[in-house]
Amino acid sequence: MDQPSPQQDHAVEEVGEALEMLSTSAFTTPRVARDDGDKFALKGKRAGRGVVQSGLTHECGVFGAIATGEWPTQVDVAQVICLGLVALQHRGQESAGIVTSEGNCAKNFNVHKGMGMINNIFTDESMKKLKGNLGIGHTRYSTSAASEEVNCQPFVVHTAHGVIAVAHNGELVNCDSLRRDVLSRGVGLSTHSDSELITQALCLNPPDGEDNGPDWPARIKHLMQLAPLSYSLVIMLKDKIYGVRDPYGNRPLCIGKIVPLSIGSYRQEKVEKLAADGWVISSESCGFLSIGARYVREVLPGEIVE
């Protein structure tokens, strides 16, 4: 068996310290890690970390949607994501963003982000530009970086293996050591955001002995070794979406199915028997009914869904 790298050893130490602190909280119970979960087809400025904020907060919401079939589809994916973010507005009111793709034919992603509430950011004009049959969105409550437009998510990065977009809910317990590791490899960081750090870490060359190719599940597993806690992620390539939950299940993430409107909201068929117009993944299921989606299940701790 390969020996763990110094970076992985350090990550384990920092996670251990974090879990020791979490164990004193009545609200958080670490869960057993599993990295081979079930496969489920999913075709004003405020200081950041270190500043204690009063009141109950939820620290960001993430949302992803993909329609069945090729672009153009019957499902207005941008509208679905926007309504999903409205339902998640309680999780963050500082900024929001949506990124969409037209699938395999896409040359670039369509991006719109801004500061403030959802209804002020996404106008009729901006929504028309968000074409695509898949996309991800984010509503932000800042934890690790200041409330500024440069920190709006999702983050989009062009890599040697294609463009990716990442939306993140959570806060890395070992962000300092991971930041040093990323910088030591010659990768520049333009913000202090954990989310940009995660995005760039996904693009790092893999460990020795592994192919440096477009195997994104392998890259995600490598990220989970470097940073085990805490996050839920939605990661978009031009033709697919990955949902990722950290091995301790410290942040929520669930899957829903968009069903045809002709089925109606109150029919009681088992969800797995219903036809699918598309799939959604979200921090919470509270917005599923308003977009014609049915709750399927939560993403398991340590699981990667595609």
Structure report:
This protein is an alpha+beta fold and 306 residues long. The protein has helices at 6-22, 77-87, 118-121, 124-128, 175-184, 194-202, 216-226; strands at 61-67, 95-101, 110-115, 134-140, 155-159, 162-170, 231-236, 241-245, 254-258, 278-282, 293-298, 304-305. Strands 3-2-4-1-10-9-11 form a seven-stranded antiparallel β-sheet, covered by helices on one side. Strands 5-6-7-8-12 form a five-stranded antiparallel β-sheet, covered by helices on one side. A hairpin with a 4-residue loop joins strand 7 and strand 8. The relative contact order is 0.20. InterPro entries: GATase_2_dom (IPR017932), Ntn_hydrolases_N (IPR029055), PurF_N (IPR035584). Residues 60-306 form the Glutamine amidotransferase type-2 domain. This is Amidophosphoribosyltransferase.
Q: How do you describe this structure in short?
A:
This protein is an alpha+beta fold. It has helices at residues 6-22, 77-87, 118-121, 124-128, 175-184, 194-202, 216-226; strands spanning 61-67, 95-101, 110-115, 134-140, 155-159, 162-170, 231-236, 241-245, 254-258, 278-282, 293-298, 304-305.
